[in-house]
Write a structure and sequence with these properties.
There is one protein chain. The chain has 3 domains: 7-119, Sandwich (Immunoglobulin-like); 123-228, Immunoglobulins (Immunoglobulin-like), CATH 2.60.40; 233-307, Sandwich (Immunoglobulin-like). 1% of the residues lie in helices and 53% in strands. It has one helix spanning 315-318, and strands at 7-8, 11-15, 19-21, 25-33, 45-49, 54-58, 77-83, 89-97, 100-102, 105-107, 110-119, 123-128, 134-135, 139-148, 158-162, 168-173, 186-193, 199-207, 210-211, 215-216, 219-228, 233-241, 252-255, 258-261, 267-272, 275-282, 286-287, 290-295, 299-307. The strands form 8 sheets. The protein has a 5-stranded mixed beta sheet with strand order 3-11-8-5-6, with no helix packed on it. The protein has a 5-stranded mixed beta sheet with strand order 13-21-18-15-16, with no helix packed on it. The longest helix is centred in the last third of the chain and has 4 residues, at 315-318. 25% of the residues are buried. Bound molecules: zinc ion (2 copies).
């Protein structure tokens, strides 16, 4: 404002969060200043707040600022505590100062629109207790849980499981008790029917957006599931030490999705469907080959694994 003008301007500025969550309390830092440098720190600010445009007066900062403590132009920051409405969307707060006289000058009235985006709470999903493998066409259960970023009670929120094509496979609602050991992981168990064909499937679990006491965003998460044909044949694996042929206990046997551990006689049994497999055996301190096998009948195999000599300085790296 040029010297000699009849009045001074009143400038309201804010350092604000551009986005807050529904229902959240937040603080606007408000500065009221005069371009000519008058001290406007004692000027009240009117705040008109959504959703009902209720007005409140923010008094001058308490205690009043001392000379020279303010920011440039004599502006002193006032922290204005506000609360976001419970409805998501863009909401506008209005800050105003009435025309007034300060430092001997008349100052114009001023109004500032402060738009703030109010967003629903974010949610996240977890899927656990997925059995592996799952036999074709059989029912099985998984557990699904969801959490609000603000830890809200999500009881009753709808959950759906969909296949890759988007077809709903199962649905339910979150129960009213958080998963033990968590404060706000609301969960439910869903029963699904396995596809009629074997294979790896990638499905998604979805939480629909919902208005509880507060609006919540939906979310989705993918999970994989191994579906296998019904077991038809018994595979007996005997694990022995190379050279001595003595049985090796507690060796881990893996055949595709199937797992077993050898007993005191070096034996492990698996019931598996027909098909080609890679048979892996693992035991700490031993070097074990991977064997390609085809199951088309009951089968017994013996796998010799070689003890890695102690004096081999690289042994640890081969495990
Ligand atoms: Zn002024
Ligand atoms: Zn929430």
């Amino acid at each position: 404002m040029s010297a000699g003008a009849a009045t001074h301007a009143t400038v309201i500025t804010v350092e604000d969060p551009a986005e807050v969550a529904v229902g959240a309390e937040f603080v606007l830092t408000v500065l009221v200043s005069c371009p000519a440098g008058c001290d406007l720190s004692g000027i009240p600010i009117e705040v008109m707040a959504p959703p009902d445009n209720a007005t409140a007066t923010v008094p001058a900062p308490c205690p009043p600022p001392h000379a020279g403590e303010g920011r440039e132009g004599g502006a002193v920051a006032r922290r204005v505590a506000l609360k976001a409405p419970l409805r998501a969307g863009e909401h506008v707060w209005h800050l105003s100062c009435a025309a007034h006289k300060s430092s001997g000058w008349h100052h114009d009235a001023s109004l500032l629109r402060v738009p703030v985006r109010v967003r629903p709470h974010e949610t996240s999903l977890a899927v656990w207790a997925i059995p592996s493998p799952v036999v074709t066409s059989r029912p099985f259960a998984i557990k699904v849980g969801a959490k609000s970023a603000a830890g809200c009670d999500l009881t009753g929120m709808p959950i759906a499981v969909r296949d890759a094509a988007g077809t709903m496979l199962a649905g339910g609602v979150l129960g009213d008790t958080p998963w033990p050991g968590t404060s706000s992981l609301y969960w439910t168990e869903l029963t699904l029917i396995a596809p009629a064909e074997a294979g790896m499937f990638s499905w998604s679990v979805e939480l629909a957006a919902a208005d509880l006491a507060l609006p919540h965003q939906g979310s989705s998460s993918r999970f994989s599931i191994a579906i296998v044909d019904p077991p038809e044949h018994k595979l007996t694996i005997k694990v022995v030490a190379q050279g001595t042929a003595s049985p090796v206990e507690n060796a881990q046997v893996r055949l595709g999705a199937y797992r077993a551990t050898t007993d005191g006689s070096g034996l492990a049994e698996l019931m598996v469907p027909k098909g080609p497999y890679d048979l892996n055996v693992w035991k700490s301190g031993y070097d074990a080959p991977t064997a390609a096998i085809v199951i088309d009948a009951d089968l017994a195999v013996e796998i010799a694994i070689a003890l890695i000599p102690d004096e081999n300085p690289d042994a640890v790296w081969q495990m």
